[in-house]
Amino acid sequence: MSRYALAALVSALALSPAAPAFAQTEVKEVEVSIDLAAIDNAQAASVWSNIATDLENAIVARIADQVDDDGVKISIDINEVELANSFQSAMRIAESRLAGRVNISSETDNSKFATYDLEVSFDQAYLPAGTDVTVLTIESPVYYAAMIEIFADRVVEKLG
Fold first, then answer.
1. Percentages (nearest 5) of helix, strand, coil residues in the chain
2. Hey, where are the domains in the chain?
3. Do the beta carbons of residue 113 and residue 104 sit within 8 Å?
4. Residue 69 reports pLDDT greater than 60
5. CA-CA distance, 105 to 156, in Å (whole number)?
6. Model-wide pTM > 0.90
């Protein structure tokens, strides 16, 4: 880079307003629990038996660079799991949904409190390219992962 180009770059940076820095919410702890009554049938219970741990891990993976001892605590109580097979979804008989109450709290910052209900459905989920939805069932790891991923994404998006 020529010294004129370098001087122009330095001048441009000095004259331009500083870009606002968007602070990410730091997180101290993530806790997910499930009300066993939320899983209302045996098939769903067998498929979704590790949902609390898997959802917790999915959220932690997304906020790994936001961990801090003074951060917020994210508590999620899953209160509804409704599973529909592909045929039911196609016929609009039933829809797969995952719902819960999300609480954000902080021991050090009184402005960092929130409680909201979050519900996601399978039709909002992102499937890997090439997934054949005609053979996808609720027992499929892809189906399960898609529901966990979309819920975790929504929780992290709301952190700001």
1. 40, 25, 35
2. 27-159
3. yes
4. yes
5. 14
6. no
Tell whether the model's pLDDT for residue 98 goes beyond 50. Answer: yes
Write out pLDDT tens, residues 47-58.
778 889 999 999
* Residue tagged 């098939």 (tokens): 43
Six-digit token pair at 22?
Answer: 């968007």
Mean pLDDT of the chain: 77
Cβ(143)–Cβ(136) below 8 Å: yes
Contact 67, 26 (CB under 8 A): yes
Q: 111-114, long-range: CB within 8 Å, 24+ apart, which pairs?
A: 112/25, 112/72, 114/158
Buried b (16+ CB within 10 A) or exposed e, 128-157: eeeeeeeebebeeeebbbbbbbbbbbbbbe
34 residue type, one letter: I
Query: What pLDDT was estimated at residue 83?
Result: 65
Q: Tell how many helices (H) and how many strands (E) occur in the chain.
A: 5, 4
Res 151: pLDDT: 94
Residue labelled with tokens 């991923």: 149
DSSP 8-state class, residue 126: P
Q: Which residues contact 68 (CB under 8 A, 6 or more apart)?
A: 26, 27, 28
Structure tokens at 78: 């899953």
**Contact 48/145 with Cβ under 8 angstroms?**
no
